[in-house]
């Protein structure tokens, strides 16, 4: 099994919760990204996107030089662990149309970022090679269901215990 | 074969070129969109035709071209932050033709017009198109 750790980007640009939005915007421009993790040391506090800045600050007439990242960031962070299976990560990102996902270590500290460019898939909008297509079809329904359950579990949106059971059920079948 | 009209977003939002970026942000928040088309105020009243579109402005443009430069979004207008020109296609074009067009032009968005009267009817983004759609 290939893990996320093997291909993720380790040098992740982050912003502090106290960074003001003009600083965050500058960093987004510099890094050519629309999303940055908001971190207090190694601990992830949330994610901030270019859209958060527009919708939650500029549209409300707030001064971006005075508003902090922690005021407009999203606190629910989608993440995976660095030892998680790479195929599963790809399926999650494809099904949810997420281009980047935060990767944490066992202690839930930020360890890296996995993006489509890490596995040579560009933004996920280019054509897939035949090998990728074969990999995709092999994931099949069980994998997708487990993936989705796993995703929601990680989001903490649904009841965690039920989903853990669901995942182990599908994993048991797959094994 | 899938056509552009099957995947496009309807109700494209058009704003006059003198709209401030703070007003543009409010429109994006209220209508829950991230992209606005920009046209001459007079042309918007008459009905926008393909050559009347001046540019396209996204939430990201507001961040990168205004906030990151510490410019005032009340004073900076969409015409100063937009990307141009705007490329377009027709509702009944096959989706693959639109995809080819975007790839050849290096853009991620196309304005969509009706075939007969050339009325602006929607908006197509690469985010609206999945791999399955390209194959279908």
Describe the protein:
The complex is a heterodimer of chains A (175) and B (136). Chain A has 175 residues and is an alpha+beta fold. Chain A has 6 helices and 5 strands; from the N terminus they run αββααβαββαα. In chain A, the strands form 2 sheets. In chain A, strands 3-4-5 form a 3-stranded mixed beta sheet. In chain A, helix 4 packs across helix 5 and helix 5 (130-155) packs antiparallel against helix 6. With 136 residues, chain B is of the alpha/beta class. Chain B has a 4-stranded mixed beta sheet with strand order 1-7-6-5. The termini of chain B are close together. The longest helix of chain B is centred in the N-terminal third of the chain and has 11 residues, at 21-31.
The most extensive interface, with participating residues per chain, is: A-B, 21 and 21 residues
Instruction: Give the class of chain B from helix and strand content and strand pairing.
Output: alpha/beta
Low-confidence stretches of chain B: none
Determine the N-to-C terminus distance of chain A: 13 Å
């Amino acid at each position: 099994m290939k893990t996320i750790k093997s291909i993720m980007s380790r040098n992740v640009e982050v912003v502090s919760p106290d960074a003001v939005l003009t600083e965050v915007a500058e960093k987004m421009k510099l890094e050519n990204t629309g999303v940055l993790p908001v971190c207090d040391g190694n601990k992830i506090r949330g994610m901030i996107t270019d859209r958060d800045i527009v919708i939650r600050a500029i549209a409300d007439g707030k001064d971006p030089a005075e508003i902090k990242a922690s005021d407009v960031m999203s606190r629910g962070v989608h993440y995976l662990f660095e030892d998680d299976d790479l195929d599963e990560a790809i399926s999650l990102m494809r099904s949810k149309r997420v281009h980047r996902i935060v990767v944490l270590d066992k202690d839930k500290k930020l360890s890296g970022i996995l993006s489509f460019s890490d596995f040579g898939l560009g933004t996920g909008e280019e054509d897939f090679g035949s090998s990728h297509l074969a990999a995709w079809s092999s994931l099949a329904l069980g994998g997708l269901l487990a993936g989705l359950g796993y995703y929601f579990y990680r989001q903490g949106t649904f009841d965690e215990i039920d989903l853990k059971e669901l995942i182990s059920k599908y994993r048991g079948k797959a094994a | 074969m899938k056509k552009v009209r099957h995947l496009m977003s309807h109700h494209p939002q058009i704003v006059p070129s003198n709209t401030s970026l703070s007003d543009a942000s409010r429109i994006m928040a209220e209508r829950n969109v991230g992209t606005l088309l920009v046209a001459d105020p007079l042309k918007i009243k008459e009905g926008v035709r393909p050559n009347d579109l001046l540019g396209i402005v996204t939430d990201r443009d507001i961040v990168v071209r205004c906030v990151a430069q510490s410019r005032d979004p009340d004073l900076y207008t969409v015409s100063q932050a937009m990307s141009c020109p705007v490329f377009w296609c027709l509702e009944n074009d096959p989706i693959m033709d639109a995809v080819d067009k975007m790839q050849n032009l290096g853009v991620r968005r196309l304005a969509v017009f009706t075939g007969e009267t050339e009325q602006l009817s929607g908006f197509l983004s690469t985010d609206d198109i999945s791999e399955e759609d390209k194959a279908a």
